[in-house]
User: Fold this.
Amino acid sequence: MKYALVWTPHFTRSANKFSQDHPDLKKRFAKVLGDLEQDPLQPHLRLHPLKGELKGMHAVSLTHSYRITLTLKITEKEILLIDIGSHDEVY
Assistant:
């Protein structure tokens, strides 16, 4: 089962900036996106629901310090990518 990754304009800008600022994490970023496409429930992604103002969204871990926020539309097999950045930036 494959999921479609939908890049929002904001995520595209954030991802480009993140890649420029963190060229050492490009491979890791690509791997996490590939793993999300295959199955977002893989344990190593640490998918978790968010609370407060971001209720209804989820996050996965890129590294200990960096997260990707997203909205899952499981019924449509879509993953809407929202933001990428440090814990404080995306929350």
In short: Residues 4-90 form a domain with the YaeB-like fold fold (CATH 3.30.2310.20). Helices lie at 9-21, 26-38, 87-90. Strands lie at 4-7, 48-49, 58-61, 66-73, 78-86. The chain has one domain: 4-90.
